[in-house]
Each structure stands twice: as structure tokens, then as C-alpha cells.
Amino acid sequence: MQALRTIRSRTAVLPVKDVDTDQIIPARFLTTTSREGLGDALFRDLRFAADDEPVADFVLNRPEAQGCEILVAGNNFGCGSSREHAPWALLDYGIRAVISTEIADIFRSNSLKNGLLPIVVDSDTHAWLLANPGAEVEIDVVASTLTLPDGTAVAYPIDAFARYCLVEGIDQLGFLLKNLDAIENYEEARS
């Protein structure tokens, strides 16, 4: 996992509510345990027509969305079945953070464990972001703030352990391995 301390990027806006994990990555692409290449399947049925031609007006197909690392989504993003492939696909595509007023619990958990930052903001901030696609914002993971172009800093909630892992660029297994000596010393002292 790549360490994640700050993200400074323009935003791509997908103002659709209740985007589920099957829309993020359709089930037919879940046949791999590799993360590489899943970005091609991201929003596959929304980004591409039945003939595999790009849908010109889909947000990620627009020229102004190229290079955006932050996706502003409608309410209840990531609902539906649990699949780690959903955050994997977003990350492989180049998205580092998703912002909404509500992010499904299982999707949020899978995202944090895999290096994607899910951010829940208040409805006023969300409305501003939806109305201003392409806005350049900065996310400070350490301070847990989202800074808008006018300098307004908006705090967002994040579990302290998840934030630590993101900042250090480790997952839960990486955390355990990083502390292996202390764990082994504890176990030896107990026996």
C-alpha cells in the first residue's frame, strides 16, 4: 500500500445516489485476486455502451475528469454486496478518495483496509462539491481535513487506527508484521 498523507487534486463528480458495488465493478470481473487491471472494469456498464464504445457523457470519460484523484459521489455510495474489488478498481483507475454524505459501512471498511480514503462530509459541503466539478481541493489525512479552494477546512471523521495505517502505507497485516518483535516478546513472557 502506498502511504497516504495528502491528496491535492481536481474533483470528478458522479452525482448519482445509491451507487452499489456491482455498478462500481460488475460481478463478471470478480474472477481475479489481482488488483492490477481492475481500473479498466471500473463503472464498466456505466462508462461503456453494449458495443464497448465509451459513453461520452459519463463523468470519467470526459476530458476534464482525466487525472482526477478525488471522486465526489451521491449519497449512499458503495451500497450492496461486499467486494474488495470495488476499492481495488477505484485505486487502479487512479482514484485515491471518495467523498459523499454517506458511504456504505462495508465499502468504507474495505476501502480503508486497501488504501482508498472514504470521506463523509456535511450536506452543505457536499452540495458545494457537487455544484463545482473540477474544483481543486486538498485532503490532509493526518489532520482529517478537506480544504476547499476558498481555504475553508472541513473536518471529516476517520478511525484513528485506519488513519494510522493509511499514513504509514500499511494494511492490518503490515501493522502486525511491523510489531512482530513486540508480539513475540509478549507471547514469550506469557509462557
Keyword list:
191 residues, alpha/beta, Aconitase, domain 4, 8 helices
Largest sheet: 7 strands, mixed
Count of extended strands? 7
Tell me the radius of gyration. Answer: 18 Å
- How far from one another are the termini? 34 Å
Strand line-up of the largest beta sheet: 4-3-2-1-5-6-7
Structural class: alpha/beta
CATH T-level fold name? Aconitase, domain 4
Overall, the morphology is globular
Provide the helix percentage. Answer: 25-40%
Ranges with pLDDT <50 over ≥5 residues?
Answer: none
CATH class: Alpha Beta
Provide mean pLDDT, rounded: 94
- In CATH, what is the homologous superfamily? Aconitase, domain 4
**What order do the helices and strands follow?**
EHHEHEHEHEEEHHH
Write a structural description:
The radius of gyration is 18 Å and the shape is globular. With 191 residues, it is of the alpha/beta class. Helices cover 33% and strands 17% of the residues. Helix 3 links the parallel strand 2 and strand 3. The two termini are 34 Å apart. The chain has a single domain, classed as Aconitase, domain 4 (Alpha-Beta Barrel). The model has no long low-confidence stretch (mean pLDDT 94). A seven-stranded mixed β-sheet has the order 4-3-2-1-5-6-7.
